[in-house]
Design goal:
Blueprint (H helix, E strand, L loop, with lengths): L13 E3 L1 H5 L7 H17 L4 H12 L4 E7 L5 E9 L8 E3 L4 H8 L3 E4 L17 E9 L2 E10 L8 H34 L3 E6 L4 E4 L1 H7 L15 E3 L5 E2 L5 H8 L6 E6 L5 E12 L5 E10 L1 H44 L4 H32 L8 E4 H18 L3 E5 L6 E4 L1 H17 L6 E9 L2 E7 L22 H7 L5 H11 L3 E6 L6 E7 L25 E5 L3 H13 L3 E5 L2 H11 L3 E5 L7 H10 L6 E6 L4 H10 L3 E4 L4 H15 L1
Parallel strand pairs: 16-18, 22-23, 22-24, 24-25, 25-26
Antiparallel strand pairs: 1-5, 2-3, 2-7, 3-4, 5-6, 6-7, 8-9, 8-14, 10-11, 10-12, 12-13, 13-14, 15-17, 18-19, 19-21, 20-21
Helix pairs in contact: 2-3, 2-5, 3-5, 8-9, 9-13, 10-11, 11-13, 15-16
Amino acid sequence: MDVSLNPVDDQISAIAADELAGRRSRPADHAAESAALVAMARELAASPQTILARLAERALDLCRAHSAGFSLLDDERRRFEWTGVAGVWAQHLGGGTPRDFGPCGMVLEAEAPLLFWHPERRFPYLAATTPTIDEGLLLPFYVGGRAVGTIWIISHDDTRRFDAEDLRVMTSLATFASAAYQAQRESDHRYREILNSLPAAVYTTDAQGRVTHFNRAAAEIAGRTPQVGVDRWCVTWKLLRSDGQPIAHDDCAMAAAVLEGRSIHGTEVVIERPDGSRVDVMAYPTPLRDASGRITGGINVMVDVTDRKQLIAQLQAQDGRKDEFLATLAHELRNPLAPVANCLQLMRRAGGNPSILDNARTIMERQLAQMVRLVDDLLDLSRITRNRLELRKERVPLSKIVDSAIETSRPIIDQAAHALDVALPPAPVLVDADPIRLAQAIANLLNNAAKYSEPGRTITLAADLVDDGVLVRVRDQGIGIPREKLAEIFEMFMQVDASLERARGGLGIGLTLVRRLVELHGGTIEAHSDGPGRGSEFIIRLPVAAPASGRTGEDPATLGEARPEGRRVLVVDDNRDAAESLAEILRRLGHEVVTAYEGREGLDRVATFKPDIALLDLGMPRMNGYEVARTIRSRNSPGPLLVAVTGWGQEADRLRSQEAGFDLHLVKPVDVSVLEEIFRTRVAVQG
Ligand code: ADP
């Protein structure tokens, strides 16, 4: 662009600043200039954002101009925005001129100061900005070596003519402001970087509440891009109290913090985003002050606590269920104790009457079985929660598992006079499963079906082959399950109606166990019900095993010849009652039994009594069962069949007893029929 226009030829009049050199210059006022620079430096420290506005004011003063200002290119470099204006034109702050068609553009193009007379004659749009320019001196403004704006002084009539001294002063101011502006931009950038790197949502406002900065997390949490300079006090669309009541932006915590000059250390609010979703946040608004302590705005940090709140609610619900569970547990444990205590009294007074004794024994056995089942469930539950439940999988026909489940549940089904319909596929279905555990799962469903149905109903147990496995369904005609509870009933301690279920006996852990057992078998379980009073259906989906070419596991390997005659048995247990009662049962079954109450004594008995079988408790004082077994095995004679009888039934416990030399590992309380089976089969193998 041609900037060396001849003012004589061209009355629109833009001229090179050389003109100034020809004018008579006023003397330099260094004192005023350095005072202005010091004042600007102070400003910079206190409030860096306003440096360009201050620059305009200083230029106005020092050059005794009528107006002074600062024009900055916008981000697209298409327009100059008047970011600082002082003097007569102060009212035009925020105005601007196009990049390519105006005095500022020419200065940038020339990269040199220019003096203009009545530029509105060449750029008519300037005529609207009144009073019009009589003479204007414009200098380029550089940031990082790049011209990004202009700084200017204007006289609106011929009472003021600029000279070389004005140019010098303006150059000095511009240089200072440029350095300051650059530093401010860098610090601004750093500040933004820091804000953006924070995981919490952060935004700032000025003292009037207009948003000045916000970070990425703030935009995310608000679900919108906040409008700098427009949004007031909040970056959010809507704010609500925790109880759902709306909060006006002017009444929010940030407004309170800034207007009342106090920090708020965490207040809970709900943000509603424009898409309707809601976020629970903790807000920490704090006023910001300048060096003199004056409040210049505020900063608000917001932390998303939605997950935490949900977690707390979940924990509270779980905690409530646990309390409920403890009450239920106490009740369930006391239930069988009462009849046992009664029976003991009865037996004491029976005077040897065999029918009373027999009756009492039957009751006690039944109640004991109930307690054992309860404790077993509890143990399983604790294994499940610690992920310690282990499966002993084998390839088994599903029918075998189903039979065993029915056998377990039969007493409960019969007691309530229910009919049980069983429908299995005609061809055998093989599954890779722990038969005991899978039967336990199905039995649990059958028990529930029996428990939660009025007497005399029908329970259906069906299995159907489907594409990717087999479905095992247990359906009843009982009390049903409300739709909203269907998913929850698999949660631990969950009972639809605790008072009702308590009356029916149960701890609310059965279905948790069932689901986990099924999942351990690679299966899934779901519950269906058309609602209260309309029955329930539980469907287990299990993968089926590819048919094996050889044996199907119908029967375990033959375990040696049956030897019905009595055995020599040693029982070692530091709990005398346990030892003696077991010994007594075995004696009645025709075996010769000797007891010992500690390890060393047990060892002696092995030497003297030479038992066929030694049943050893593991946890005993002084010499425990492992040591006894090891010592026996270290002697060269073949020794008795060693059976560990213990409360510990984990795979690791079994391994440990095996290492010590035990042949078998049984978990207390031992089922006598299991012992009989062992005596019959294993001792024959021992020979
Ligand atoms: P519980 O020991 O209480 O039976 P479960 O975990 O087996 O515990 O079952 C959890 C809850 O699910 C029960 O308390 C009951 O409310 C509901 N439920 C389970 N099975 C049935 C069923 N067949 N019919 C109706 N409700 C059932």
